[in-house]
């Protein structure tokens, strides 16, 4: 009952089918080849034309199945694997048309009734299909269009609006922690809250925490802060701020509120920034004694920190901060009780995830030293840390820091009580528990991510984009005379220009010119997406934009 069409040009599929026939659920192309002794370049061009043609006739959630002989595809699934330049580079070719490799499995000719392989070098001869692979491609989500986004926030007693930094446009107000969310970050937060409530009375106070702070965060490197400019005409006056800041934590120094600065005659600086931590809110609670001894205060929400590009370095993540006030002399036993509770909750979380067996440990702050990840290093800028919470999984059993524990600073302590706080990076926990290798996947707009976590169930994540292609570009430049190079700003610019498509930035060379003393740096920038198609042409365009923006915003001279 099938309709058979002959003489079909695989690069012009649209021409062979009526409009109502152009919604195929499956398109199969077994062992494509240009014919005779064609080289890899011609066969790549054939595949490129085929994939572009498929965009016009494939259903939105359809699949393209392409079978290739062993080694032709150029993916790690090929055994043995050919050198990249000698393969058909099928994943990169498909990415140029907007497709991602979602599955790959052996091609078994014997399972297809009546199948016969023929056509070796355009002759009626069979060819070797041993080790052949079937590659299954699906549509990628559309490229992100970063139009300017304005966000409203409360600043003291005023509602203000500001333009969201472009690198955060797709991450602001995503609602991962809201009640109707099934995101694994929320699931982990709810599981921890439920576990903690078994041992302590618990109060959740996360709903009213402002996104914006004012002033200068004490002890924090300014390069790590997302500075904000309020929309024109909305910068609050000193008088209005002094009237409305009595109950806020929009502070020039963590642990010191702005209202006190006004009372002491200190002018309020007109600088605003996205909160890098929930700790100032906890310190405001401590200072006002707005807690019950023995009860846990739970704060949670996204925090924002500029950082270097790395798979576990996040410019935004969800922090869960718990604050516990205990009688002096009992703080050690309470810390241990808190850690035991977190360990018990962690054990219950990973029991339902086969293949993942994380272990949580409490380590003294002095024992980690240079092993600190970006999260722990930044937390160290916020104040003294007593303990680190580390989670170890295969292949890194030594552990990655996902939380810190500290007691209140001296100026906030009382004679009767000691206040203990624990900060958890919920996004890092989600990655370690669910086997997610790249933090960017947590923020994907592809619905296939959340489908793997129905009704808040935690599972081992299976990537829907296999072997994504990477593109390496080098850039070298002269530094401005007499100025220190801000590497965090360099990485942040790469994030913005590439829409988070840069996966690695490595310093390759540092050169100082004899005589003049001018310094030159050379970096290797690797572009790769974890969730959508990225073609070589798009990556090259990103590199060109990056070079232009570097000159404009960093003041460097390209070489």
Automatic annotation (TrEMBL):
GO cellular component: a single term? mitochondrial matrix
Domain annotation FDX-ACB: ranges: 466-559
Superkingdom of the source species = Eukaryota
Coiled-coil stretches, from where to where? Answer: none
Give the main location: mitochondrion
EC no. given is 6.1.1.20
Which GO-annotated molecular functions does the record name? Answer: ATP binding; phenylalanine-tRNA ligase activity; rRNA (uridine-N3-)-methyltransferase activity
Please list the GO biological process terms of this entry: rRNA base methylation; translation
Q: Show the catalytic activity.
A: tRNA(Phe) + L-phenylalanine + ATP = L-phenylalanyl-tRNA(Phe) + AMP + diphosphate + H(+)
- Record-linked InterPro entries: aa-tRNA-synth_II/BPL/LPL, BMT5-like, Fdx_antiC-bd, Fdx_antiC-bd_sf
- Compartment annotation: Mitochondrion matrix
Q: Which UniProt keywords apply?
A: Aminoacyl-tRNA synthetase, ATP-binding, Ligase, Mitochondrion, Nucleotide-binding, Protein biosynthesis, Transit peptide
Query: What residues form the membrane-spanning segments?
Result: none
Q: Which protein family is it in? A: Belongs to the class-II aminoacyl-tRNA synthetase family.
Question: What name is this protein filed under?
Answer: phenylalanine--tRNA ligase
